[in-house]
Every structure is written in C-alpha cells, then in structure tokens.
Records
---
Amino acid sequence: MLTVSMKVNEQAVSGEVEDRTLLVEFLRENLRLTGTHVGCDTSQCGACVVHVDGASVKSCTMLAVQADGCDVTTIEGLTNGAELHPMQQAFKDNHGLQCGFCTPGMVMSAIDIVNRNGSGVDEATVRKELEGNICRCTGYHNIVKAVQAGAKNMGG
Amino acid sequence: MYNFSYQKVTSVDDAVEAMQKADDGKFVAGGQTMLPTMKHRLASPSDVIDLGGIEDLKGICMDGDAISIGAMTTHAEVAASSDVQSAIPALAKLAGNIGDPAVRNRGTIGGSIANNDPAADYPAAVIALGATVKTNKREIAGDEFFTGMFETALEEDELITSISFPKTEAAAYMKFENPASRYAIVGVFVAKSGDEVKVVVTGATACEHRGMRL
Amino acid sequence: MAENGIGANVRRKEDHRFLTGKGNYTDDLNVAGQTHAYFVRSPHAHATINSVDTSAAAAAEGVVAVLTGDDLAADGIGPLICGVNVTSDDGEPHRAPVHSALAQGKVNYVGDHVAVVIAETLAQAKDAAEKVEVDYGILPAVTATASAADEGQQQIHDVAPNNICYNWPFGDKEAVDAAFESAHKISSLDLINNRMVTNAMEPRAAVGEYNSGTEEITLHLTTQNPHVHRLVMSAFNQLAPEHKLRVVGPDVGGGFGVKIFVYAEELVVGWACRKVNRPVKWTSDRTEAFLADAHGRDHVAHAEMALDENGKFLAMRVNTTANLGAYLSTFATMVPSYLYAFLLAGQYSTPLIYSEVKAVFTNTAPVDACRGAGRPEATFLLERLVDVCAEDMGLDPAEIRRRNFIPVDAFPYQTPVVQCYDSGDYNAALDKALALADYDGFAGRAEEAKSRGKRRGIGLSSYVEACGIAPSQAVGQLGAGVGLWESAQVRFNPTGNVQVFTGTHSHGQGHETTFAQLVTEQLGVPIENIEVIHGDTAKTQFGMGTYGSRSLAVGGVAIAKACEKLIEKGKKIAAHALEAAEGDIEFADGNFIVAGTDKAMNIAEVAFNAYVPHSYPEGLEPGFDENAFFDPMNFSFPAGTHICEVEVDPDTGEVEIVKYSAVDDFGKLINPMIVEGQVHGGIVHGVGQALLEGCQYDTDGQLVTASYMDYAMPRADNVPSFDVDYAPTNPPHNPLGVKGCGEAGAIGAPPAVINAITNALGIKHIDMPATPENVWRAAQSAG
C-alpha cells in the first residue's frame, strides 16, 4: 500500500491506496466523492472527467498515485452552497441533462472547453471537443446549447 | 488490473536503473493506452516506472532549423505550442486531433511513438518529416525507428528523451477515423522539403506503413 | 394555468443533485461489511461444462465464497423466466429453454454465467475468478439470424427443434395472396434490422443485503421497474416472499429498456447475500455490459407491397426472422411479435396485412426490448418499403404517403393488425414537417451540393407507434403474464406539503418535475411543496414501472385520479369548516370556496383539519391521502413525420446530417422542454442505429464489438441540432390528453436517415448501419 496526498476540491486529503488504484477509485471509494462516475473501461465515455492541476483528465485512466501532490477538482468542488457554478446553471436552464450519469463529466469537460476556447466558443468547436464524452439520453442538442450558454455566463 | 509495483523516478538514469532491476518492468508515459490495456488484464508488468516526474523530458524548444519536443510533452502542449504552430503547423494540428481533450492532457509524444500503435498519428509525422528520435543511448532516424506492429527499435532499457523535427517547407496530415475508436483507419502525412515530397501512410497496414517519396 | 402547471417549461427538480454530484446511483452505495461479486463468464459461445473446480479460487486471498449453478439449484432458486406467451403455429406455446442464473451443464453464449466469486474486495474477486477451472467441451456456435433455423444447423436447446422458439403467422394469408395476384404492381424489399447494444451510460449494478433478524432481503438495483423485479424474483425465482423482499431502484443512469429485465446477476446477488450473510455488491463493467446486457433488434426480413395503379396500398406481406439470442429474456417473445407485427399498418389504410415471424435461438446474448422495442423494426421496414413503392410508381415519397394515409375523419380506425388507433392527423404532421424542412427548396440545395462534389438526399419517415403500454385486458389476451395498469398515491402531510408516490420509475425522464406539474395544476399547491417519490417497494404501492412510453399516459393519469379523490374529500371537510353545504363548495387554484361568497379555505388548511380533526364531518375518515389506479382502455398512438437531409461524400462514404426536422403528435405536452429533450435523445438513438451502431458476432460466437473501441456510439460531432415541432391531436380515451414521447425519435429516425441516403445515391436500399465503408461501396456501384 502507498500513501497518497493531494488537494481535492481545495481540501488537503490523503489516503492509503494500492499501487494499482485508479484516481477515480480513490475519489469514489476513499473520499466517497461519488459524483465522478465510471461508464466504460476504454477511456472513451468521459463520465469520469475531473480536473487535475486545472486540466481535464479521465480519472479512470490515471493512477491515484500519479495524482500525488496534485490539485484535483471534481464536480462536488464546483460549488460549495446552493449557488451553482455558471456551467452547472446553464445545464439546468437548458435541460442539458436527463439521467444525470454522464453529467458530471460533461460539466467538467465543458468548463475545460471554455477555459481553452473562451466565452464565444462556437457550436462546431463544442461538438468536436465533446468527442470524449458520451451521452445516451439528450442527443447532445441541449448539452451543446448549455455549454455555449455556460461559456457566456462564465465570461472571460 | 493486476497489481504491480509503482515507481516514480525523477531522472532518466533512475528510470533505466529501475527498469534493469525489475522482473518485467514497463515505463509509463501518459498511460492513455497502457492503463486501459492493464485494466483489461492484457498486460501485467511487475513494475510500472512512471516517467512523469522527469522534468528533463518535458518541453519544446527550437534547436537551429529543427524543433525539439521532449518525450513527456503532452499532445495538448504540442498542439498549443506557438513554436510548433509556426514551425510545423501540420504537427500542431495532428497533435490537436489525437484522442479527445482529456486524453491529450495526459498522452505524450514519447509514449505514442514508443507504443507504435499501427493506427497512431505521430509515427506518420516522424517518418514524413525526417525526424530524429533521441534516446538515452543514441539517435535513431525516424525511418528506422518503427519496426513492426507495436514494435520499435528501442531496447528494453532504452527510453526516448526527445524527438527532433526539422522545419519543413509545407506539410499536412489528414486521417480517416474509425467511427468507434476514433483512431486512424488511415492517415496520410505529406511533407515537402526542397524538391522532395514524402507521403507517409499510417493505419491501413500493420506498420510497415509508411513511406513513399515522390 | 397554474404557475409551473401543465404546459410550463419548468426547470427540473432533480437537476440540482445530478449537477452537484449528489445523485444516488446503485454503485454509489457502500454498505458496512460489504463484499464484492465477480462473475466467471463463459469464453465460449456454445459448450458443455464437463466440470467446474472452484477449490483454488475458494482458497485465494480474501475469498468469501465461490458459488455455481449446483449451489443455486440446491437452494431451490428458480430459473429466469419470460413473462409473455406467444403461441406457435403448431398450437403449442413458444419453446422456453430453462435459463438458470448460473449455468448448469452447458453454456450458450460468450458471457454466460458460470460461477460467482464473492470476496472482500473487487480486485480479490477478479483475481480469484481466474483460478476457477472450467473444463468446457466446445460445440459449434450458431450466430447468424437468417440461417439459425436451417436444416442441419447445430442444435442449441433440446426443447427447441431447429432452434425455433416460435413460428407466428398473423393475418388472412389467402386474402392477402389474392390481393397480390391482382395487383397493378408489387414492390419488394429485403432488409436487416441491425443488432444494437442498448448502452445506458450507467452500467447495471446490484447491492444485496440480508437481515437475518427480520429475514428480509433488500436489493438495490439498476431497475426501471422495482415491483416487477420483486414480483418475478418472489413468485418465479423463489428468492424470498414478496413481503420479505425489498427492491430499490435509486437514481438510475438511463434505461432504454435494458434495465426492465430480471438478470442473472441480480438474482444471484439477492441469493448470495443471504447465503454468505454479508452484503454483496456487483457492478458491471462496460465489457460485461456488452457481453451480457440484453441486446436489441436483430431481424432479417422480406417485405412486399401490392399496389394499384394510383399507388394505393392493397396488401402487405412480411416475412421476418428474429434473433432472440441464447435464452429468453424477460419480455423477449413479445418484441418481434405483438410489438412488431401489430404496428405494420403504420399510418396507412392498407386493408390487408399478413405477417410471419420466425423467432430463433442463437449462441448470442439474449435479445429483448431496446428503446422502441418492435416498433422501430416495423417502422423501418414499412417506411423503407414505402419509399421503394414511391420509386417503383414514379411518385414523390410525400405524395405516396398522402395517398395512403388514414384520413383524419376515419378515427377511431381499426387496422387489420389488431390495433385500433384512437386519434391522429397524419397530413397535418406531414405538412408541417415538409414546411419545417423546406422540402420544396430541396432541389436547389441538392444542385448546390453537387457543385461541391457532394450528393444531397432527403428522407421522410411517417411513423406511428403504440405506447402508453397498458390495457391490461388487451395485453392479457395477447399472453402477458401481468396487468399493466399504473398506480399513484398522493399524500398531504399535516403541514400542507405533498408527497406523490408513483409506481413508475424515472431514469432520466424527469418524472419528479412533470408529475409535480400535474399536481400543482390540479391541487394548486406550489411546486416546491411537492415531492415525487418512486423506485422503492418499501415506500410506494405496487406499480408496473417505466417502459413503452407509459409513465405519463398511464401513471400520470393515476396521479390525476388520486388528486380528484382528494378534491372530493376536501369539499366535505371544507363544507364542514365553512358551515356550507358540500354541493356549494367549489375548488379552484388550491382553494375551496363557498360558491358566490368570499368564504374560502386553502387546501393546506383542509389537510391540517383532516389530520387534526377536532371539528370534522361526522363519519368521514381522518387523513388526506388518496390512492388511485388507472388502467386505460387502449394504447396511445403517437405519430409524426421526421425528415432527414443528408450530404454524402461519394469519395469517402461519409454521411453528414445537415438538417433534421421532426413534427410529432404527442397529444398535450405537460413540460415541453422535457418532451423536446426526449425527442432529441430518441432521434440520436435512431441516428446511431442508422449510421453507427452495429453489434457483430463472428462465426465462433465471439463478440467483435465488445467495447466503445469497436462499437460506435453517437457523439456530439456526429449529429446536428434539430428542428422540433408538434401537430397534436387529442386521444379521447386518455383523461389527460397525453400520448407518450420517449421512444418516438428512435422509431422515426432510422428510416428517415436511410431514406435520405438512398435518395442521395439513387439506390434502392442500404442496410444499417450505413457506415462510410458501406456507403462508399454503394456510391461506387451506383456510379
């Protein structure tokens, strides 16, 4: 067993993991942050996307120990009260979610898209950059609308 | 995933030493292919030696008429690099279309080249641009680096340190993606320098892709 | 209209928890003392099991138990069942092979369950599973649908000679044949309906707990219908009596049919938690989902239409072979029979239809309902055939449809295939869709595309479906083993807020919002004071769950009926309190009013009086809490026209959907925002089937497409945004005037997409999925 320490949602955490423990397993099982989901085993569905040192990564394709010393943000860390992050609010306003399972990864990817492409990101870019996030419910129409609306809400 | 012993190293020498000591060690770069393979229990290394802590392997710099990209530089970094964008825009574009944004934030050029997936994008660029693969032991011409499906000229304890791409007059890369995996079913890198135009094909064949001079 | 009532685009009540990571899915649940299950699955498609040696696995680190089919049988756990009978042409019931949850002596598909390892950690369970030694005697595999019943094929089940589950003819063959004899023209088509893996994004999971003190099993499951799970596991699998079995379907990450069924893993987890007297958790990984979730569709069909000289349909003849996989899943038999053949009339007045369905067993995963279930198969076949007819007759596809539509004044309309459509205006939807799609401007756009080397095509699909799955009497006559009504309980608490208990289950559809809108509309209680509760057999009254676009059309009406009962009771309470005659009390906007006066009492006050009945009508029961059940007289029949416009690159075979217009008749819309979301999702499911998704087994029965690396799911960049509109009609038998919308897109889209491609290329047909390779080949041969 190894001890890993990192900052998760601005709190210092540490825990015992096996060498093979994935970051997503550490988040879900050790920290019980179950908002980050696992929807596949080939790094394609994106339900597990979190931010590590500010960049989106698939937490099912990174070892927990590789995040040692890093700054991790999960869906639970976007808001600390009743007020939603502008991207979360945009998903709600635009009905960008149905069953909610892909949603945390979608929102984390969406914020990353805006961080890199700015508040005026166009539809084609949003669609292209969501290729690593699969949704079976929404047909993407409202997700794309939500990401663009969220981008505007986020400003910058 | 089978269990293994994880080792984080901070220098190339330490990485090589760890590999030499391991029963059946594996270097892990970005891990975007290796970890899924291990999750499916299709690989079972005794030791996983993580190159992520070796600062010397990261970064992009101009080196005369060439651009040198550290092996542990991520696809996202290559795509966003203004040096790459101005020296060889096709290479930046290629990097920006590997996998998806989250994969590009972890996956590295060295990992991709060392893995030599027959459907990977980078190998086409390495050959077409006449790049040189630099390792801890030697320099290998791009033409000679890829030896077979998932096979390269690398020895067991040899690791890529950087890849040097000479500037080119004009180049472009296009791929036709598998609708499911989004890997290249076929990708074509075309590069022109002087009177020579090189056309290199990735995908489509097991590996011996590659290479046709016009 | 009440604020947030019927017709309002209320933002969903469930979203906050999903958006903040506070959803509560089955795999999110960890129970103290929990163990982990991992299944040993057959690597072979067809084999005898000569022996299973579990000793090494049982001795491995962390292992609690290794259980096999023998253990299951010894404990008297019954086999998995199929709940709907289809009578074969020999007068006998369909052939139903025994389907043990853990194999006994034989495996019949790759992924079939051989043993389960229960260990302290999942990793230990997986490690130990590799130590279970199984001696297989490999048999030849049967995988191809079309040839499964051929002479000399390998036999899979002794009870099913020639691998036939049933032969099911329906219709007046002689009359149909006679109509074909005298037809002006006969159009025909051979097609396949590709096999799909349903792929809800949340993989299936189960957590079982046994309380030895109360002898109660609690099973948290990824289920669309907790009570159906409990009923089947109790009555047929003898897991535990119903009152000692609690099934909870917490937040469920998408269903689309795949979580209706009672699966081996679920039954085994329920049984094993009692056997080892520890909580047991199992979560499927995606590979297991591909191998062992029930798959969908998989038909091979030949269809013919007899036409007169004006292009009127005189008769239709359809011959279908349907692959049911290795065993019968819970509702497998009804999908290619009642849910398919009874929809073959579509929107048309075709007077004579004859259908033969041969359902076959193969060495592949069981096949059952997937979004649309039978209706997409019928619609794809019919709407493709109609386009072939149009071509053969030299008519525009819109025109031939118009000539054959059931006219608006013909409703209720009795089709020749059982269904009696209650309402519809097919021309209205077609006209609106043609306008939305700028059908008239297509020729110009096609010309312009040609100048860029592209080929543009436009495709229509005018579908009808039967949903609001209920009429118990109707489904009972057809062979269903259960009733299909729905239930509701609407409970006021003494402080005036409301809990609504529904027997349906929401796994993305937004019931917590839509149903609250119904209640706020009817009772005038602010929507924030209404909570919808579902998915727990210990909380809600018996209900049938969610599938077949039934939740609102059946479950919603039950809620409305319970509200009516509350209003009736409330009038008595208010009359007493307001010292008026009951007949003088009117109810509006949440207030009981003495007619013609300003004397009034809010429903919350009435509720308080009902629970604190210090001054109360004599003989009236206290409490403000009503139950209702609803069993409709008929299915509901949503319909519409979808129009897809594509651009094909003949050099690469790539198909881009450049415009997609949908006009649907769902009756009245409660929350248009949610309805539109259902339409979008359905369309992309259908586009996925048409362009991307194709489940493939090789001849050895190995699943070639067992991950997202090989099975192409639609992504955001595969589809455009959509133009959606409505052409509603009022279904007279539904008190809310609603029809159901969850499956429509998946039903309407596949033929719209394929008709657009055949139109672009000028070809008769292309099978799904129309991958770049298939399209490129077709484009080359079409020249």
---
Amino acid sequence: MRIEVSRRQMPSRLFAYLSPVIALALTILLGAIVFMALGKDPVQALYSYFIEPLTETWSLHELLIKATPLILIAVGLSVCYLSNNWNIGAEGQFLMGAVAGSAIPVLLPEFQNYLVLPLMLILAMAGGAAYAAIPAFLKSRFNTNEILTSLMLVYVAQLFVDWLVRGPWRNPQGFSFPGTITFNDFALLPEMFPASGRANIGILFALVAAVLVWLMIRRTLKGFEVRVLGQNPRAGRFAGFSSAKMTFFAFLLSGALAGLAGIIEVAGAVQHLNEKLSVGYGFAAIIVVFLGRLNPLGAVVAGLVLALTYLGGEAAQISLQISDKSARVFQGMLLFLVLACDTLINYRIRFIAGQPSASAEGN
Amino acid sequence: MARSAANGDALLEVRGLTKVFGTLKANDSLDLSIGKGEIHALLGENGAGKSTLVKMLYGSLQPTAGEILWKGKAVSVTSPSFARSLGIGMVFQHFSLFESLTVADNIVLSLGPGHSIEQVARDAERLSQEYGLPLHASTHIGDLSVGERQRVEIVRCLLQDPELIILDEPTSVLTPQEADNLFVTLNRLRDEGRSILYISHRLEEVKAMCDRATILRHGKVVGECDPRKETAASLASMMVGSEVAEVQRETREDKTGEILLEVRDASLPPATPFSIGLKTINMAVRAGEVVGIAGVAGNGQGELFDLVSGEVASTKNAVFLRGQEVGNLGINDRRKMGAAFVPEERLGHGAVPGMTLTDNLLLARHASDAVALQRFGRIGWVWEEMVDKATKRICEEMDVRKSAENPAASALSGGNLQKFIMGRELDRQPSVLVVNQPTWGVDAGAASRIRQALIDLAASGSAVLMISQDLDEIFEVADRILVMHDGTIAEAGKAGDVTREKIGLLMGGAHTERDPEETSMEADHAH
C-alpha cells in the first residue's frame, strides 16, 4: 500500500477560514485527553484554563497585557511571512528593543520629562530593527538561511540581557537580585483604567499597528510588493521589485514592532528590565500569525486567544497544581493542528492499495 | 477514411473515454482507434484535451468512464509502468533527464532495478546507431543540445521495444533539420510495424507525415481524416471550429526609421553551469520595424530578454533605448522611457498565477502609470477604481474571455491570459515592445489576433522585437530576421528574401564556424 498526497484542484474557501476554529476545537479536545491522562477532571480543568480567566475584570486586564506583545510581534511577522522571509528570531528582537529602550531610564535616571517615553519607544524600535537587520543582511548578501541566523541570534540576545541585568545595569540597591532600577514615572506607560487593573496603553499601539499594516498590505503598492515577492519572486523582478530590499523591509519592520513590544512589556507591566523578560512571546507570536491567517487583523483575535493560554497556564498552576509550562503544550498543539488543518485543506491524502509505481515517471 | 474504428486490426482502441476534473469535462466520451503500423496524429488547440487523453493512455491518469482496448482486449492502465509492460512508450514534451548524469545513467534510472549500466550503455548505443540517432552513452546530459536530449528520450523509449509510441509535440524544440531527421526515424519505426501517436499543432508536419488524424476540440472528437487529403487551412478550421483570420499587413519595405532599441557588444556570463551566456550581441530595431529572432529554445533567448528588459543589469552602454544608454537602469526606468516587455513564461514571470487580473495589471504598470493608477500623491496608495477600469478596457480591447469578473491569472486559459498580458502592454502604446514567444501554447484564434496586434503596433511607428521559436510566426510577422545560436546572434536577412534552409543552418550554428574576424567585422558593420 502506498500513501499519495496530491494538491486539491479547488481548496474550500470556507474551510480555509474555518481552519483556525477547527484547530482550536481539536486543541481543546486533545487538551482534555491530556488532563485526563494527568488524572484531572477534564471539564473542570478546561474551565479553569479557558473560561475562568475571562470572568474577572483584573484578569481581563492581564489578558490585554499579554496580548499586546503577541499582537505587535505577529503583525510584523505577518509581513515577513507574506513576503517569504522567515524571521524566527522575534524573541531576540523583542529583547534587544527592550534593552535599547531601557537605556534612557537606566543610564540617565535624572533625565525626567515628557520626552522620555517617546524617546524610549523610538529607541526600542530602532534597537529591534537593528538586531533584525543582521539576519536580513546575511540573507541578502550571502544567501544565508534566515531561519537559522535569526533563531540563533535569540540565544545571543537572551544571554546579553542576562549579563546586563546581573552586571553593568544591576540595581545597586537591589540586594544582589538581577535587574535594573525601577523606572521613574516618566518612563512608564500610563495605565488605561487604573481603578480596575493594570492594563496600559500598549494595547492601543498594537491595535493601531494592526490596522495600519493591514491597510498597507491591502491598499498600497508596498503591500502589493510584499505579496508579489512572497508568491513569485520572478514575477516580482519583472515588476521591478527587489527581493533583497524586501528582505530588509520585512525584517526591519518586524524587528521594530518586536522591539516596540519589548519596551511596552518593560515600561508597562514589569517596570524594570530583568532576566525573566524572555517568556517566549516572540515564538508564540509565530502561532498567532498562522492562527490569524497571515492577516494583521486576524492577528488581533489570535493574539487574544494565545494570551488566554498564558493566563490559563498560570491559573492551572494555582488551581490544578500542574506546571504553567502546560501553556506551551497548548500552544504547540495549536500550531501543529492549525498547520495540519491547512495542509489537509490544500492537499488530499489517499491510501492506495497495490504496487508502488516506478520512480522515474515523466509526469 | 482508411480504416474504421470497428476494424479488427486496431492496436489500440478507445471507447467513450471520459475524464472529469471537478465540473470540467476534459475528455468527453472520446472514440479513437490506432491501427498497427500507422502514424496517427492527435490534433487540437491547447486545452482541447490532448494531454488528458494521452495521460490516460499512458496510465498517469485514470478515466472517469469509458474503456481502453489493447489488441482487442479491455485493459485498465493503472500506471505508466503497466503501460510500458503492455508495450506503450511515451516521449514527453518536457524531458525528464538529470543534467549532471550521463546518458546511460539516465536510461538505467528509468528502467528500474536489475540492469547493469554497461549492458544498457551497449544496447542504447546499438539502438541509436540503428535508428540514426547518434548518441554516446557516456556523455553528460548537460552537454547535449535539446535535440540530442530528445534522442535520449526516444532511445530510452525504444529500449522497452514498444508497439505504440506516443510523442508529445516532439518538433517544438527542434531546428527544421533536426525535425527532418526525426521524421526519417519515425518513418523507419512505422515500417517496422510500430504505431505512433503523434501530438502536434504544426499542421504542415502532420500533413507530410501522418496516415490519419483525429481532431479534438473542447474535449470532444470533432473529426477524423486523412491529413494528406486536407489543406492546412481546412485542418486549422476543424481545430478551431471556424476560419482563422489571416494576418493583414502592408507590403514589406525597407525600414529606415530612427533606431529605437539597440544592443551593443553585450555579453553576459552564464548564470548556472548548465545555462548559456551571451557573447558579444549586436542588434538594432528601428521605428516601424518588427525584428524576429529565431532559434532553438535554450540558445540564450531568455537571457537576451532579461538583458533588454533590465531584469539582469549590464554595463551602461550595452543597451540603448531611443538613443540613451540604459544598460544600468532597472526595468521600470526602461518602461518609463516607453518600453514594454512580454516574457515567455506567462504564469510565474509575466503574471502571478494566484493573483487577480487587476493585481496582474498593476504588476507591470505600477511605475510607468504611477499617475493614473495611484492616488493621494506619492504615498503609494493604489487607486482601485482606475486599475479596475484599465483592466476592463484591456479585456474588452483584446477580447479576453474569463469566467468571473476578476479571476486569478491561473484561471484563464493560456490564450486568454496571453491576450491579457499583450493587451496590458499594448494599452500603453509603447514605443518599443520586446516580446518572447508571443503565441507559445496559444490557440490559433488568439495567436492570429496577437500577431496582428504586433504588426499594427509597428505600423504605428513603434519598434517591435519578437523572439520566437515558431518559424512560421517569424515569417508571418517579422520584417527582418535574426537567429540566435549558443548565445550569439547572426543576421539572416529580410523576411521576404531569406530561405528557411538558411535560417535552419544558422539555428544549427553554421555561422560559428566562420572566420572569427569576419564575424566581428560584421558586428562593427551593424552599427
């Protein structure tokens, strides 16, 4: 017997849109099985994982805080992936953005006025973009695989942050704990509804970025260039577009947005730079991109879903006494299943009884 | 009709064969019979269903309904290897050979396990001698010409001792002389009692060589005839379903207009070890003139197109548009100077298959028509109404037939997409048009429309450079003919004076054996 995978003549449009929903449903189903295997009541476990965080105001605030970096990064990555540039290193760009933006409150603690926050945001975007420029340069100049280089640079960034907060940037009054001084008030993002929770205006940046990038992709020539070069570089060259320039554009844009996400995280929820900043938003955002159908507006919805898995993981740690790493399990299953759904929507798998045919056929 | 389908001596018979893809009936209840020892032509336009039929005969597709009889017995051809075991061999239009391996390696690979390379090499060389297809088993495929590669495919097919050989558009890649050699081989195979199913849209060939012809249109058999008793025009009208308009042109005269496009001493190194570079190319196209470049595929035509279009950068003074040096300018800068380009590959070069027609309009014209197609100043905002309007205008002007208002490029038939791509450029009224294979795989009706458009454009005072492998097309459209061989260009002469034989010799590389000094003097002379 042999297994044949062939492209479907007419992939269903309906299922292409439903794919993330189906993947989510399957993830929840598989999650229930995992909980059962762990000896927990699946219904109760799923409730505390996915429903409970949505029932209280303060945790809705937390949801926005977690969704903000996911959406920001995913919006940038969607441009990368649409243009066929596989930036896997957003986590590193997120960290380097956070470092660059933190430089002002950490190194110039006396510099306190309304310019501080805008400058921090700009520096963070520049830092993230500069760090993303490395794999872009290596790809366009030496044809290096950007998946490997951008991924490896994540580890460099993680170790760099670790060294900074334990060494030169450590808070002298911090009882030897790693971490910088707490930022002054001018260096912190304002909270939106301080009475009910700590959600800050970072989510507005994420929403604005999503809408702007969506408009760019749908309505402008630049977005057209992104789509053409992503689908067909040869035709892109016929249109006079340059793949090398596009690589830089996509990496710089996604690096800048990841850097912005980094400083929003630091200047918002955490209020200082520490060694625990890297919790994998840059990787989870890859799932957000695919769950959001490579559409920046889709990334907003998908970012909220992924943020829920983080919250659920924390909730499950308390109420079910299982590791909050279970959130990673859910995220992994979700990515696997959404890609599996997409594959089955575009391809048909057939099991054919009989002899395999000779290998070298003309067609 | 020489033999009828009911005749007992049919080698292969097809009854009511139907293949449905989704809602499309690619083959609709076809009947066909191929007698022993006959060359049977399968004629039809692109999309008529020839490939589908042949793939079912060779086992790479399974029919939806109907039956195939082999020597009178119903068989179900489940795979190409089963087809070969029956005695059906096939030579594909697009070769499936590994360039970095030798002839013998390639043949052994296709035979499956249990054959020694030495034995296969001996058999292949013996067969190639017998049938006048000289080959050395130890040559690498990468070093062979296209015609020689086809020999490898034919010898590979003959090694299985087939009774029926299917040839898919075999002469589309050959020079006239190479094609003549192929015909000798085919006649010999017929004399041995083998049958040949010959797929082609070259009517002259079919008339000269085939005993019987079956004509397909829209997936149905619309006629069976003895092609020797038909004229090319009557065969064409059966294929198309109506008379094909003849191209109208004024008498050819010497064109003395201003030189609008010129290439001077342009050389390009080969991009890959198996591709061709350009060697000191010199040529010029005047206003009002159509210059045709003939040549066998893969002799540098694509590279020349890239050089002229600016997709590959060259030195500043290698290419001139309207007297200005443009060799270092990109394709959009050249478009802004009035040039337009139509590449050979429609899907994947001239158009993005998955994108709509409006997007594909933007593909070629976003820079040259920036003012008309963008709004809100210079922020790159696409003015969709204007793009829609231009798309509609082009579709109407060129009679592009489509199933939806704004379908994806891949949803159009080859002819309709080519009409759209030509229309996209003609709509700008370019002063220089460079087109590679304008009617490749395009149905006869669309082809004549496109050729007429090229002639009309030149008549209006533009310069047209047309690269084509179709000699008939070149003679029909061009004022002056150049020939490409192995990355060089030779002047053949005015279309009215030059003979096919001369062009054939140049296509085979006759001019390269001349004194190099003479060639370079000619090049100087061309300025």
